[in-house]
Amino acid sequence: MQTEEEQIAQLKEWWQRNGKPLLAGGVLAVAGVFGWQYWPNYQASQAAAASYIYQQLLENVLSPEVERDTAEVVELSNKLKSEFAGSPYSQYGALLAAKLAVEAGKLDDAAAELQAVVDKPADATLGELARQRLARVLAAQDKAEEGLTLLDGEAPASYQASREELRGDLLKQLQRPAEAREAYQKARAVLADDAAQGTLQLKLDDLAEGDA
Questions:
Q1: Engineered SS bond to 186: which of 84, 164, 193, 194, CB 3.0-4.6 Å?
Q2: Which of the 8 DSSP states describes residue 142?
Q3: Dihedral of the CA atoms 156, 161, 167, 171 (nearest 10)?
Q4: How far apart are the first and last CA of the chain?
Q5: pTM for the structure as a whole
Q6: d(CA 28, CA 26)
Q7: pLDDT digits 0-9 by tens, 104-162
């Protein structure tokens, strides 16, 4: 039978071999538990902060022009970009900034805002919104051919009609009525009958009159 001194010596030896690794593992396990709890909380707080800034930006942009604080709009938009880069709220802010730039006649600034979203969209909807708006800005800059290139490929299902209608607008601007008519007809085919009776039908009628 071991003496008490021998048992203590053996325990010390075992601790030297195994105690520190076990302690380190315990620390990592505790850190992992707190980490799993911290990360969702952090994400939620970031989303809430971004949402609050975006709400301020939206209220400012939608206010009457005489009450709009353009400097604050720029500040809030830049804050979203710097602190929440790549998030949906940051990109919604870019779309708003582009809207104001267009209204101010600063088409280059608008194109830069929209191109950044097109390059790395947070989701397909944001990417398509930015793509179509950028195509319109390019058309306003007499760069309709570049705008058409942006519209190559398939759009998300809910944006097929608007993309084809936009394609028709750009083709009409480029004096290519037959292709414009084809694009408008594709847009009309996607829409329900009642939705197709409106501006889109007027555009088709206008092309038909031009052929007469």
A1: 164
A2: T
A3: 160
A4: 115
A5: 0.73
A6: 5
A7: 899 999 999 999 999 999 999 999 999 999 999 999 999 999 999 999 988 999 999 99
